[in-house]
Amino acid sequence: MEIWINPACSKCQSALSLLDAEDAQYAVRYYLEEPPTVEELDAVLQRLALEPWDITRIGEPAAAELGLAAWPREAGDRIQWLEALAAHPSLIQRPIITADDGTAVLGRSPESVRSVLP
Question: Contact 56/81 with Cβ under 8 angstroms?
Answer without folding.
Answer: yes
